[in-house]
Amino acid sequence: MTIYSTLLGKKFEQLHPKLQYRYALPLDQTFYAEGKMQQIQTGSKLLFPLYLLASKLNFLFPESGENIPFTIANRCRINQEGEAEVSWERSFFFPESVRKFNAKMTLDLEKRLVKDFLGDVPLFYSDLLFDVTKEGFLMITSGTQKVVVGKKELTIPKIFKGRVFVLEGYDEVKDVYTIHVSIYNSLIGRIMRYAGEFTESVR
Fold first, then answer.
1. Helix runs in the chain, H state only
2. Tens digits of per-residue pLDDT, 170-181?
3. CA-CA distance, 181 to 9, in Å (whole number)?
4. Which residues form the DUF4166 domain (predicted)?
């Protein structure tokens, strides 16, 4: 069982069968996929310095666009702490640059949530809550977010949080996975939003 099936328990069986397959993620096996984002939208120009800094950590980035090719690679490993950890490597192929949005996820079974460490350097993480919709889609929303400073974890005040909403499904007519992601802040509005489709690929 992976961190996702462990977290969702019986609800995991309510996911669309293709999503069950995608999130089964046997240890040390990689799920590869490629597709297109119909739309990627970033936020206010005031956030440009944040996007540039985050892009160096393979987190957020400043580009927006339409019909942007992208790839996903997910792999479950046992990390140095002996925990099951799922790596997320997302690459977006803009005309002038390639941007990445990477993360590593671990399970907090006591709190019934996933810790999502964003970027290649674990300076920030968000608690993620997982649920299954009546259509069999996977729905993810954010909880507490923290900045990691050395061995200390500092909670980000709610007013500065990025509220995350993710909906991943499967379109049986097109035979593709679908993904919708929104990151929003109550003060500054949209931070990032993207929506697209993808299919499994072999490397």
1. 3-8, 17-24, 48-56
2. 999 999 999 999
3. 24
4. 15-198
Residues 97-120: b if buried by 16+ CB within 10 A, e if exposed: eebbbbbbbbbeeeeebbbbbbbe
What token pair was written down for 198? 């993808």
Greatest distance between any 2 Cα atoms in the chain: 49
Beta strands (DSSP E) in 94-150 are 98-108, 113-118, 124-132, 138-149
Confidence class of residue 200 from pLDDT cuts 50, 70 and 90? very high
Distances (CA, A) of 154 to 123, 126, 151, 170: 10, 12, 10, 37
Quote the pLDDT of residue 122: 81
Between residues 71 and 28, the one the model is more confident about: 71
Which of 183, 172, 181, 177 minimizes the C-alpha distance to 200?
177
Q: Three-state SS for 2?
A: coil
* Cα separations in angstroms, 41 against 63, 77, 195: 8, 32, 9
CA angle 190, 193, 195 (to 5 degrees): 160
Nearest in space to 164 (alpha carbons), one of 178, 180, 148, 187: 180
Cα distance between residue 76 and residue 88, in whole Å = 9
